[in-house]
Amino acid sequence: LSGLDPAQPYFQGTPIEVRLDKSDAEFVDVIHTDSAPTIPNLGFGMSPAVGHIDFYPNGGREMPGCAKNPISQVVDLDGIWEGTRDFVACNHLRSYKYYSDSIIYPDGFLGYTCASYDVFQAGSCFPCPKEGCPNMGHYADKYKGKFKHDFVKLYLNTGEAKDFPLWRYKVTVTLSGSRKVQGYVNVALYGSGGNSRQYQVYKGTLQPANTYTKFIDAEVNIGTVTKVKFLWNNHQINPTFPKLGAATITVQSGENG
């Protein structure tokens, strides 16, 4: 039984006979997308974990792409009715959109077991354990019976618009060069499964021999990494033409470590 952002008003905090609970089926997986308090935030979804495994994409409260301009949201590509619904209850409705995308992407929406979304964002729950990470949505039932303790909370990030799944990587760059410079470092990942866009690893003082780490949620499953493109630039015109390079770049996949 899959709960798609189960309702908060009149249900949260009630006895299990009233609301969704893991006793309702052999396996209950839940997607929470609008779990901010109803008052004052108008959250429609419940926040407590109630299934065998509960997914909190983007932290479970505010979904990327839902804060865009109201006019552009109402005059939506899918039509005025769809756009109006999204404007009124965008976070709440993301749950079924994630679920439908999960059917198309069986390897997508990996949920990482973590104490909180902030801890997940900091990278403390990376990579997946050896038994793997559950997939949020249609294929969550592959993990039926694999979790022995109650109320497993899983965290992940999604895209702002369809297609929603993202794949998480840890990128570590050690710089080479003769002296420090103000600027930024970008990388793009190339692999057997496709290529990513550029992602900013660091912005600020670039110090040769220093190591910089960034968790990247890529819009494609890179597969086996074949190449990494490294780019850097400085913030201001520098007549001395400083040079920087990458001594090493390490890419770690969240899926298999």
UniProtKB/TrEMBL annotation:
Q: Which SMART domains match?
A: LH2
Q: Which GO terms describe its biological process?
A: lipid catabolic process
Which Enzyme Commission number(s) are on file for it?
Answer: 3.1.1.26
Topology of the protein relative to the lipid bilayer = Peripheral membrane protein
Q: What class of enzyme is it?
A: hydrolase
Q: Which intervals hold domain PLAT?
A: 167-257
The Swiss-Prot or TrEMBL record describes its family as follows:
Belongs to the AB hydrolase superfamily. Lipase family.
**Cellular localization per UniProt:** Cell projection, Neuron projection; Secreted; Zymogen granule membrane
InterPro entries linked to this entry: AB_hydrolase_fold, Lipase, PLAT/LH2_dom, PLAT/LH2_dom_sf, TAG_lipase
Q: Which GO terms describe its molecular function?
A: galactolipase activity; lipoprotein lipase activity
Provide this UniProt record's keywords sorted from A to Z. Answer: Cell projection, Cytoplasmic vesicle, Disulfide bond, Hydrolase, Lipid degradation, Lipid metabolism, Secreted
| Gene of this entry | Pnlip
Protein name stated in the entry: Pancreatic lipase-related protein 2
Q: Which reaction equation describes what this protein catalyses?
A: 1,2-didodecanoyl-3-beta-D-galactosyl-sn-glycerol + H2O = dodecanoyl-3-beta-D-galactosyl-sn-glycerol + dodecanoate + H(+); 1,2-didodecanoyl-3-O-[alpha-D-galactosyl-(1->6)-beta-D-galactosyl]-sn-glycerol + H2O = dodecanoyl-3-O-[alpha-D-galactosyl-(1->6)-beta-D-galactosyl]-sn-glycerol + dodecanoate + H(+); long chain 1,2-diacyl-3-O-beta-D-galactosyl-sn-glycerol + H2O = long chain acyl-3-O-beta-D-galactosyl-sn-glycerol + a fatty acid + H(+); di-(9Z)-octadecenoylglycerol + H2O = (9Z-octadecenoyl)-glycerol + (9Z)-octadecenoate + H(+)
Q: Which GO terms describe its cellular component?
A: extracellular space; neuron projection; zymogen granule membrane
Biological pathway:
Glycolipid metabolism; Glycerolipid metabolism; triacylglycerol degradation
* Entry-linked Pfam families: Lipase (PF00151), PLAT (PF01477)
